[in-house]
Amino acid sequence: MAGIVLVGAQWGDEGKGKITDLIADDFDYVVRYQGGNNAGHTVIHGGRTLKLHLIPSGVLHDNKTCIIGNGVVFDPFVFLQEMEELQKGNLLQSNTRIYISERAHLIMPYHRSLDQAREAKTSGKKIGTTGRGIGPAYEDKAARTGIRVGDLYEENLFREMLRHNLEEKNFLLKNYYNEKPLDEEEIAAQYLDCAQKIKSYVADTSLILDHEIRQGKKILFEGAQGSHLDIDHGTYPYVTSSNTVSANASSGSGIGPNAITKVVGICKAYTTRVGEGPFPTELNDETGNHMQQVGQEFGATTGRKRRCGWLDMVLVRQAVRVSGIGALAITKLDVLTGLDKLKICVGYKYANDQFTHAAPASIRILSQCQPVYEEFDGWKEDILYARDMNELPVNARKYLRRLEELAEAKIVLVSVGAGREETIILEDPFINKLL
Ligand code: GDP
Ligand code: IMO
Ligand code: MG
Question: What is the pTM of this model?
Answer without folding.
Answer: 0.97
